[in-house]
């Protein structure tokens, strides 16, 4: 194949150059254009007169944006802690060579094959007080049973956490399990010879040596938190009210519904800045580790 390509005059450098040119124009070009729009008063039609940081001031005095940021923090903390804990627990159980391991791995990996839209619609039906879990239990005779979190502004955000953990725990399980299967067997022999309890071996010996694996899971989950949109639209549409509003939904709504291009661009740039700030410690630790 390589010889045939050479005969045809194929030059890989040209292909690589074209690829980088496309990335530069459509990816970095879009970031630059969005950052410029965030400094203007653009609405439906872009305006190219720079007005400074007015849109950023408006953004951080917008109650809806502040609520969406608070929701993202609440959602992110519970989602990441819950997903990591549940995913790591599944990985540890699978690592102990339980019976029907492949079957259970398939069950917990299945949610990854389902889109977030389908996931949101399924959980919306399941948690709907009139037709879901609450109606089912009451139909079985427990009339006082109540599970109406989906319609309660103070608890609706936690329904997103439940659905997201169900969807992402399998991914963490697979990544951590791959790391566990890469542990040297001699280390396990030494642990058994020392008589170290299994739980202590995982917490004090195994997992500290898997920091890059855990860090990779954290980075993936953080990206899901910041760009979360599909699940929210399918499950709550940001409601009740703005109880489950997130920055990504805020930006999309102001782009396409309220046609405030300047404010939406400012929100998008703040999301990008937040992503960079969250990823900086990870890249810094990786850089120091390789020096």
UniProtKB/TrEMBL annotation:
<feature type="transmembrane region" description="Helical">
    <location>
        <begin position="106"/>
        <end position="126"/>
    </location>
</feature>
<feature type="transmembrane region" description="Helical">
    <location>
        <begin position="201"/>
        <end position="222"/>
    </location>
</feature>
<feature type="transmembrane region" description="Helical">
    <location>
        <begin position="156"/>
        <end position="180"/>
    </location>
</feature>
<keyword id="KW-1133">Transmembrane helix</keyword>
<dbReference type="GO" id="GO:0055085">
    <property type="term" value="P:transmembrane transport"/>
</dbReference>
<dbReference type="Pfam" id="PF00528">
    <property type="entry name" value="BPD_transp_1"/>
</dbReference>
<keyword id="KW-1003">Cell membrane</keyword>
<dbReference type="GO" id="GO:0005886">
    <property type="term" value="C:plasma membrane"/>
</dbReference>
<feature type="transmembrane region" description="Helical">
    <location>
        <begin position="12"/>
        <end position="33"/>
    </location>
</feature>
<dbReference type="InterPro" id="IPR051393">
    <property type="entry name" value="ABC_transporter_permease"/>
</dbReference>
<keyword id="KW-0472">Membrane</keyword>
<comment type="similarity">
    <text>Belongs to the binding-protein-dependent transport system permease family.</text>
</comment>
<feature type="domain" description="ABC transmembrane type-1">
    <location>
        <begin position="69"/>
        <end position="282"/>
    </location>
</feature>
<dbReference type="InterPro" id="IPR000515">
    <property type="entry name" value="MetI-like"/>
</dbReference>
<keyword id="KW-0812">Transmembrane</keyword>
<keyword id="KW-0813">Transport</keyword>
<dbReference type="InterPro" id="IPR035906">
    <property type="entry name" value="MetI-like_sf"/>
</dbReference>
<feature type="transmembrane region" description="Helical">
    <location>
        <begin position="65"/>
        <end position="94"/>
    </location>
</feature>
<protein>
    <submittedName>
        <fullName>Sugar ABC transporter permease</fullName>
    </submittedName>
</protein>
<feature type="transmembrane region" description="Helical">
    <location>
        <begin position="263"/>
        <end position="284"/>
    </location>
</feature>
């Amino acid at each position: 194949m390589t010889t045939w390509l050479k005969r045809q005059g194929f030059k890989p450098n040209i292909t690589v150059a074209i690829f980088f040119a496309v990335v530069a124009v459509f990816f970095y070009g879009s970031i630059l254009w969005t950052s410029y729009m965030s400094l203007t008063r653009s609405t439906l039609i872009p305006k190219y007169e720079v007005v400074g940081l007015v849109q950023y001031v408006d953004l951080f005095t917008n109650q809806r944006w502040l609520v969406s940021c608070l929701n993202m923090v609440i959602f992110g903390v519970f989602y990441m802690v819950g997903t990591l804990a549940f995913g790591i627990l599944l990985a540890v159980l699978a690592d102990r060579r339980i019976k029907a391991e492949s079957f259970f791995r398939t069950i917990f990996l299945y949610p990854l094959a389902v889109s977030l839209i389908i996931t949101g619609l399924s959980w919306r039906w399941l948690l709907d007080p009139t037709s879901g879990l609450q109606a089912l239990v009451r139909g079985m005779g427990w009339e006082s049973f109540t599970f109406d979190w989906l319609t309660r502004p103070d608890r609706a955000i936690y329904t997103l956490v439940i659905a997201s953990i169900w969807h992402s725990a399998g991914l963490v399980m697979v990544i951590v399990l791959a790391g566990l299967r890469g542990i040297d067997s001699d280390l396990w022999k030494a642990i058994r010879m020392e008589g170290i309890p299994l739980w202590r071996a995982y917490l004090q010996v195994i997992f500290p040596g898997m920091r890059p694996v855990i860090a990779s899971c954290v980075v993936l989950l953080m990206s899901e938190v910041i760009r979360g949109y599909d699940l929210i639209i399918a499950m709550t549409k940001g409601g009740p009210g703005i109880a489950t509003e997130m920055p990504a939904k805020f930006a999309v709504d102001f782009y396409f519904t309220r046609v405030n291009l300047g404010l939406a661009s400012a929100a998008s740039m703040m999301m990008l800045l937040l992503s960079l700030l969250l990823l900086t410690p990870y890249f810094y630790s990786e850089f120091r580790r390789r020096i």
